[in-house]
Amino acid sequence: MPPAPLILIVDDEPAIAETLLYALRTEGLDAEHCLLGQQAVDRVRAGGVDVLVLDVGLPDIGGFEVCRRIRSFSEVPVVFLTARGEEIDRVLGLELGADDYVAKPFSPREMVARVRARLRRRLSGEDPPWQARGDFAVDRTGHRIRHRGQPLDLTRYEYALLEALLQRPGAILTRAQLMDRAWDSDAASSDRTVDTHIKTLRAKLRAAGVAPDPIRTHRGLGYAFEA
Fold first, then answer.
1. Model pTM?
2. Please, are residues 29 and 7 in contact by the beta-carbon 8 Å criterion?
3. What is the strand order of the sheet 173-174 is part of?
C-alpha cells in the first residue's frame, strides 16, 4: 500500500492543532504538527509534505513570510488558516502563492474536504509544473516566473530571456543563443534588441527586490545568470 498523504499543520494554538490532527487522521491521512514558521520551512525542505495548513499569526515569523520562503524552493499546496478574514489578507496570501484560505472559526470537516481537494488537483496534474531555480520558480507551460513567491510582471521577450538564463545558471549565453530562444526569427531582432530587453528585465528584477543584479554582462560574449 502506498503511504498516506502527509499534511503538515503549522499553528501555535494546541487546541486547534489537535482538532485538525484528529480530523485528518480519522479520514486516513497522515498529519504532523509544528509550532513555528521556521520549523515549517525546514520540514517542507526536508521533503515528503503533500499539503501545508499554515496559520498566519505565528510566534517567530508570520505565515505570509513562511509562504514566501517556501515558494522559493517548493510548490507544495498551501492552505492558510487564520483568524484574519479581511479581503486584503486573502488577496495577499493568494498572491504569495497560497492555494486556499480558510478563516477561523472553521469546520474540521470543511478543512479536510479542502485538503482533499488540493490533493486531488496535485495528483491529477492540474497544478502548474513549477521548477525551482534558487529564489526563482519557473512555470514553462504557463510562461510565468516567480521570485520568492512573488509573480514577476514580464513581457514575452523578458520572460524568454530570463527563462533561458535560469535554465543554465553560470553559463554564458551569446546574444545569438538568446535570440534563438526569445524571437521567432532573426528578422525582428538584433544584438541591440537583446541588450534593450535585458535592460528592462534588470529594471523589473530590481523593482521586485532582486539584489544584487543576477544578470552578468560578459563583454564581447553575452550574458550569464549568476545568483
1. 0.58
2. yes
3. 173-174, 222-225, 215-218
| Three-class DSSP labels, the chain | CCCCCEEEEECCCHHHHHHHHHHHHHCCCEEEEECCHHHHHHHHHHCCCCEEEEECCCCCCCHHHHHHHHHCCCCCCEEEEECCCCHHHHHHHHHCCCCEEEECCCCHHHHHHHHHHHHHHHHHCCCCCEEEECCEEEECCCCEEEECCEECCCCHHHHHHHHHHHHCCCCCEEHHHHHHHHCCCHHHCCHHHHHHHHHHHHHHHHHCCCCCCCEEEECCCEEEECC
**Residue keyed to cell 538568446:** 178
- Give the chain's domains with CATH numbers: 6-126 (3.40.50.2300), 131-225 (1.10.10.10)
Amino acid at 134: G
pLDDT tens-digit profile, the chain (227 residues): 567 889 999 999 999 999 999 999 999 999 999 999 999 999 998 888 999 999 888 999 988 889 888 887 888 889 988 776 555 666 666 666 677 888 878 888 888 998 998 888 777 655 556 777 888 888 877 788 988 878 899 988 899 999 999 988 889 999 988 888 777 654 455 668 899 999 999 999 999 999 899 999 999 899 999 87
